[in-house]
Specification:
This protein is α+β, with helices and mostly antiparallel strands. It folds into 3 domains: 236 residues, Thrombin, subunit H (Beta Barrel), CATH 2.40.10.120; 83 residues, PDZ domain (Pdz3 Domain, Roll); 91 residues, Roll (Pdz3 Domain). It is built from 10 helices and 25 strands. Strands 5-4-1-2-3-7-6 form a 7-stranded antiparallel beta sheet. Strands 8-9-10-13-12-11 form a 6-stranded antiparallel beta barrel. A hairpin with a 2-residue loop joins strand 4 and strand 5. It is globular. The N and C termini lie far apart (122 Å).
Amino acid sequence: MTSKQAWIKIVFIALISGAAGAATFFYFLPQKEKVFVEYVNASSNRFASNMEVVAGKDFVEASALSSPAVVFIKNSATVYNQMSWFDYYFYGGSASQQQVSSGSGVILTKDGYIVTNNHVIDKAEKLEVLHEKRSYEAKLIGTDPSTDLALLKIEADNLPSMKIGSSRDLKVGEWVLAVGNPFNLTSTVTSGIVSAKSRHVGVVNSRFPIESFIQTDAAINPGNSGGALVNIKGELVGINTAILSQTGSYAGYGFAVPMDIVAKIVKDLKEFGYVQKAFSGMEVMERASFDDKTDVAGVSISYVQTGGAADANGLKKDDILLQVNNVKINSIADFDEQMSFYRPGDKIKVAYRRDNTLKEAELLLTNSEGTTALTKRELFQSDKLGAQLEIVPKVERERLNIKSGIRVGKVKGNGLIARLGLGDGFIITAINNYLPKGPSELEEILTKIRGNVNLEGINENGQKILYRFHF
């Protein structure tokens, strides 16, 4: 055998050995890895086909059904710069400027009822709705700061309304669209999935906030507020409200008020102009750390109002609330959402645990004054003071541990309230140790009082404050 033939034989044997080794390797490759490789390869075409159906058909259909019912809202207001008494006395007025902000809204009925966020229309002197190149002046029907919702009405007929879906049926992982007007870009649609439900993120500025948000990764930006969160059928399942971001722009987390909550709020605002909020006489908090033997279900009762519905039925602080009307309660958001569905006079069944004993009770829900009657909000408009005034209800007075209080709201212009630096939500509890009996008496006192004045109150954070003025 020549040296050339020997080399050919060596190379041939090496090739045969390599092929045999490779075959052996793949033969003994773990089954899990083989299945994974085959699954990815085999399903790639099917996955592309499914995406084509969703993106090519269902997104188009859902967009076409929802976009015509989303409107652009302009909020025009006069903003007054804070001035000192020195400036006011010597310059006889205040610096002001016109401010225009915008947001989105959703047409609910063909005759012009539109839902949006409360913060979109807050402090508005004029509200304009733009829809299909037409402009409408909007009337404010009512607001609910506790859910950050507001209801508007425009005079129009045969408007394209949106089909209402159920947020309860919405599943985590389900496709959704966000339809709105971010950055003044009208009729913008973005897509994503429901990334979580029953989120409590602490963005609603209210004494009794209701937060049980739908979380989505559909892009939501400034201007989307009040717009629609839509499922793949083109049904309205939420009202886009907030984003979680360090920059003020989309960072992957958007939040919408569930449609089941919106429906109840809108119904109340249409019927009464005011939300009929039901109180159970208790507050809850997330449970603390657990050991291996502790049942993690439920929320801890953190406060029980004396004489309230919970107290009257034997519930106590530190009891573990498990269910409301057979619905499991595992977070503050779960509790808030369930309570948002009821009115004063309704009854709910609650299941709770004290120590190792399971208990049940039926609570008769009340209004903010502790009765079961439907309520009517009484606002006193004081042009002399430049603000709206209302008496703080009983349930809130007891929670704040005050005997009386008058809340300041909708501070406008450069009236006395604005010059004193008292903002929306401030509660006046006493003037020179005297407790005003109502808004009209407070107006009379502040317009006539002279000399040194001590004004006591509570700010929006619940902190007691003492102001000293000289009139």
